[in-house]
Amino acid sequence: MKTDSQIKTDVEQELAFQPNIKETEIGVAVKNGVVTLTGLVDSYAQKLAAERAARNVVGVRGVAEDLKVKLATAFLRTDPEIAEAALSALKWNVEVPDEHIKVRVQDGFITLEGDVDWQFQKLSAYETIRNLIGVRGVRNLLAVRQLKASAVEVGQRIEDAFKRSATIDSHKITVEAKDGRVTLKGSVRSWAERADAERAAYSAPGVTLVDDLIAVGA
Questions:
Q1: Quick check: pTM over 0.85?
Q2: Which residues have a Cβ under 8 Å from the Cβ of 198 and sit 6 or more positions away?
Q3: Helix segments in the chain, DSSP class H
Q4: How many angstroms separate the CA atoms of 38 and 175, rounded?
Q5: Beta strand pairing status for 181-188 and 173-178?
Q6: Measuring CA to CA, how many Å separate 16 from each of 11, 19, 54?
Q7: Are the CB atoms for 69 and 137 separated by under 8 Å?
Q8: Which domains does the chain have, with CATH numbers?
Q9: pLDDT at 23
Q10: Quick one: average pLDDT of 14-23?
Q11: DSSP code, position 33
Q12: Mean of the pLDDT values across residues 51-76?
């Protein structure tokens, strides 16, 4: 098992390895496998990239980020400009039912509201706007409509998806489904495997919420 000092070094090296992250402006602290990131970044996209890079390091059990977005002058945009760009981007994404989505912008923070049929549509809407110039943060309040499906059917489809996956150890994860809500429990080897399991669960018809209680590296 890696020590906190080793994990800290690995995280710093991973941040330095990413071409879209200015690692010199990010502080890294590690305690009991939990990484804390602090400092300033140039964009919301860079903030997400830093957190993702830290999660991908072996031995990391959690990430607490306190990164602040300080936009460069060239990246500053008014709220109406950001809203217009967001609406246009959503309209051009074939995976997003943009007619059901409302966009609000305040001080560079975008809020998405409305409802969609699938979790992948909610995620796609978020991914469409998070890298826009001028964005400081995104609140994704899109609701996923509950499609008719029995709890047994939902649970079985998710378990089958786990078994088909090359990246998920299905024997170490249990699935509980009720009223569109799925709870995942167990343990996995990495944050990437945990994310794959959660993504697979959200892909099942009828799932509106996933409680991911899977432990990493336990």
A1: no
A2: 184, 210, 212, 214
A3: 4-17, 44-55, 79-91, 119-129, 151-164, 191-202
A4: 35
A5: antiparallel
A6: 9, 7, 11
A7: yes
A8: 4-70 (3.30.1340.30), 77-144 (3.30.1340.30), 151-216 (3.30.1340.30)
A9: 67
A10: 85
A11: T
A12: 88
